[in-house]
């Protein structure tokens, strides 16, 4: 979606995926809540490590991390509201949080709304026990030839025999 190749852009994409994992893990009771804390902890360690590898000054990195923490928790609320609402609310949350209010192409927002909805549905279908035991999450591709098919309910099957 033409986002710049920066630590912050990487973080914004990672943050979205972490949020989707948190949504799924919260369904797994006490173990899921523990996993949520662990996922967030690992995310922050990864952000810090990537910043160091990129050669970002430690003082600047510390300031960036402080800003990222504030944005992370605000984004969680926005994404939660978006996933529970209609596509306009989710698009607004993505525009604010992922694109930093800087997305000129509405097709990018449409693509990301579809992506988030299909990922959340995909994650909901995964075994919670397997997720907790392995920590392995599979993701659907960003672009699929018939991406909307996952979101459409199956047509009802009518059994008229015997009537």
From TrEMBL:
Record flagged with keyword Signal: yes
Residues forming coiled coils: none
Pfam families: Ubiq_cyt_C_chap
InterPro entries xref list: Ubiq_cyt_c_chap, Ubiqinol_cyt_c_chaperone_CPB3
Record keywords: Signal
Boundaries of every Ubiquinol-cytochrome c chaperone domain copy: 1-135
Origin superkingdom: Eukaryota
Any Gene Ontology CC annotation: mitochondrion
Signal peptide: 1-25
The keyword Transport appears for this protein: no
Gene Ontology BP, a term: mitochondrial respiratory chain complex III assembly
Transmembrane segments: none
Recorded family membership: Belongs to the CBP3 family.
Listed name of the protein: UQCC1 factor
Organism: Psophia crepitans (common trumpeter)
Primary gene name: Uqcc1_1
